[in-house]
Amino acid sequence: MEFEELQKIWDLQNSQPLYTINEKALYNRIAAKKKQALHITNTSELLLIIVYIGSASFILGMNLSGQHGNIFMFLMAAWIFIIALYLLMSRIRRIKGSKRFDRSIGGDLSHAISTATYQVRLSQLMRWNMLPIGILALLGVGEGGKPAWVIVLLLIFFAFAYYAGGLEHSIYKARKRDLEILQNKLKNEASSGDDSSE
Amino acid sequence: MTENEQHHIYEKWLGQHKALIFKIVRAYAFSAMDQDDLFQEIIIQIWHSIPSFRHEASVTTWLYRISLNTAIKWTRKERKYYHADNLDNVQHILQEHSIQMDERLIWLYEEIYKLDAIDRSITLLLLDGFSYKDIAGILGITESNVGVKINRIKKYLITKSKKHYYHGI
After folding, report:
1. So what's the ipTM on this one?
2. Structural class in CATH, domain B97-169
3. Which residues on B lie below 8 Å from A26 (Cβ)?
4. CA dihedral A110, A114, A120, A126 (to 10 degrees)
5. Is Membrane among the key words of this record (chain A) (predicted)?
6. Tell me: the pLDDT tens digits for A103-134?
7. What's the pLDDT at A38?
8. Is the Cβ pair B158, A9 closer than 8 Å?
9. Which residues of B touch A28 (CB under 8 A)?
10. Rounded Cα–Cα distance for residues B93 and B18 (Å)
11. Distance, CA of A20 to CA of A11 (rounded, Å)
12. CATH of B1-95, one of 1.20.1250.20, 3.40.630.30, 1.10.1740.10, 3.30.1490.100
C-alpha cells in the first residue's frame, strides 16, 4: 500500500468524528472534583483554625508568664486570635452558603467552583497575613534584645513562608480555573445538544 | 481579553476542531481512562492558550501545536491506567461511536501508537496534510530533520501495510 492510500484511510474519519462526549461521565467527573475540593477546604480550614488558636495561646501564655511583657507579642497574639475568629466565621458562612446550590450537576459544579473560589481567597488572605505577623514578630524579637542573626533568620523564614504561600495560592487558582473550564465545556456540550435537538 | 471573549473563542474552536483533538487522543492514549485524562488535559491547555493566540498561524496549526505538546508531555508523565482495577464500571467521557470504525483505520492507529511520541506527532501532521515547514514549526525541529523522519516513517508504514495485506487482512 502506498502512502497516499494510507492518507485516504486516514481521511475516512473526517466525515465521522471518532468519539461523542458522554455528558453523564463528565458530570461524574465534576462530582468527584467537587468532593475533592470540599475535602481539601475542610481540612485546611480546620488545620488553620487549630494552628492559629494554638499559636496565639502559646504566645500569650509565654508573654504572661515572663517577667517583662512585650507589647508587640501581645499585639501578635491578639491579631492571630482575630484571624482565627475570622476563619471560624468564614467557615460557618461557607457551610451555610453551600445549601443554596441545587442538587443538579450544574449546581454541583457551581458549588465546586464556589468552594475553589473560597480556597483561593483564603490562601491569598493567609499569604498577606504573613506581613503583619512577620512585622510584629520582628519588632517583638527586636524589643526583646535578641541578637541580629535571630532577626535575620526570622526574616528568611517569613520570606520563605510568603513565597510558599504564593505557590499554594497558584495551585488553588489553577484548580479553580480547571473547574471553570469544565463548566464551560459542560455549557458548550449542553448548547450543542440543544442545537441538534432543534 | 475578557472572560466572555475567551469563552466564545473556546466554544468556537472546540466545535470546529473537535475531530483534531480526538485524533490526537486516540493516537496517544490507549485505554479509555487515559483517553479521558488526555482529552481533559488538552482542552484545559487549549483554554489557557487562547489569550496568547496572535493569529500568526492558522487555528488548526495552533491547536495542533498545543494538543501535541500536551500529549507528548502527558506521555512522559507515565500516569497511565493500563493496570487499574475494575475499569469496566467506570463511565468514560469519550465514547466511541457505535458505528464500526473502518478496520484499516484501526490498523493505522495501532501502527501509529507503536511509534515514539515525536514520530507519532509527525505522522499525524503528515497524514493531515501539513507541509514539512509547518511540521518543523509546530515541533520546533529543522525541516531537514523532519524530512529524514518522514522518510523513515513512510517506509515503516508502507512496509507494515504490505505485510498486513499479505496476511490477507
Report:
1. 0.76
2. mainly alpha
3. 93
4. -170
5. yes
6. 555 666 777 788 888 888 888 988 898 889 88
7. 77
8. no
9. 91
10. 14
11. 18
12. 1.10.1740.10
